[in-house]
Design brief:
Shape: globular
Structural class: mainly alpha
Radius of gyration: 25 Å
Number of strands: 4
Order of helices and strands: HEEEEHHHHHHHHHHHHHHHHHHHH
Mean pLDDT: 83
Number of helices: 21
Length: 510
Amino acid sequence: MSPEPETETAPEAAEQSATITIDNGNDADMMVEKPWKKYSTYALAIDPDQNDKAVAFKVCSSTRPHMRVFHCAWWSHFNSFFLWFSITPLLVEIRDSLNLTKEQVWTSSILGVSGSTIMRFMLGPLSDKYGARTLMSLILISAAIPTACTGLIQSANGLYILRLFIGIAGGSFVTCQYWLSMMFAKQIVGTVNGIGAGWGNTGGGASQLIIGTALFPLFQDVFFNGNSNLAWRTVCIVPAVIAIMTGITVYFISDDAPKGNYRELQRRGCMPEISASASFRSGAINFNSWILFFQYACCLGVELTMYNAAALYFADEFGQSTGKAAAIASTFGWMNIFSRGSGGYASDWANKKMGMRGRLIVQTTFLALEGAILLVFANAKSLAGSIVAMTVFCLFAQAASGSSFGIVPYINPQNTGSVSGIVGAGGNVCAIGFGLGFRQLSYKQAFTLMGSLVLVSSLLSAFVNIKGHRGILFGQDENPRNAAPEPQSTLMVPEKDPETAAPDSDKAKA
């Protein structure tokens, strides 16, 4: 019979119980040392063979450490994406106020994604070394400062510099995915990563709706008597303040890993020191990392490009106002509430049926459907047709993002942070490429280019070859698909060996 899930115990109690006493019936009790960890019991069932990662997921719970981290991770990621794209619904106003050209606007968007790309490559190995909690707090506070300074820009160059530094916020995706991968077991990590990143990515859509449709009109019409210039220059202070408060709070109420914070674990000798450069090298020499890099580029890269392009597209091509264009564009972000999590769930379900091969088939299917519908969107002639096509291809793009990070934890488990950073950066790199396309090409040509590349990326799943797992064309499963370790939640004390027990039994009879 499976043991009942553990319940949360105060950290002080766990720290004081570095040893346990076992009454073995002898004159002297046997003292058994056990490694230190912050919590002696947990609110969720765990797998001790995966460093006490949870094998259950209760979304309405906020107990430490597992579910507390889940909610801190997605909310921090949400605020980061809100910061990152808070300026995009205002680009029409900024363009008109500063007399910018189309090329200058798109250059600023490219630089905004470039700043995030650098951060994602760095944050992967840094997460392996320092943990995600501290890094997430630093991201939020660092990105909030330039966001609050939006009103100070006076030229295209000022906009370029501002968006480059705001791009720091985009790095939160890597820390979010790494953090959740440290807390939840492989059996459910696709679903958890999908839901966490999906809810976080919703910040991009929320910024379109809240900033463009709600706060900007409020500031313009109520606070500044119709002065749109003052409205766009002050409205971004609101998300900046919220992000700073979130960054400080998350640091103090969460943990790096189930067993505690990295610094404490390393100090007590329970966790080895990790070299960030060695971790990155290990992730980078794995060919599978770069296949997932390109595939993720063709799902998240499309999503990031749409955050920058959608409002401009519907304003320029269909004559929509700033508020209406932002509301339509926000659809892409709001779909993350369920679509990315659905992709992670589909990946976990396929893994139960077919192992890694099932995950790869799901990945291929989502990417192929995304590319096909994106080509339909590129050729849509009406506003209604464009909105419907955008909604459908957005569903598959975000589901593919979710299924991608159902695969990532298997590529190099010892250096999951570095692999997450490489794969996560793929979305940003491709968003830069797509941004250059939109800068030079017509909307139809640029969207057609995106759809074609997505279709090509869907074919690459066949070449993924992860040791110990059967792929579409290569490899074999080392273990049965469903032979997941039985979750344990209490310390199991070995029974006494029968041979050593016999003398005590004879003595008792005498």
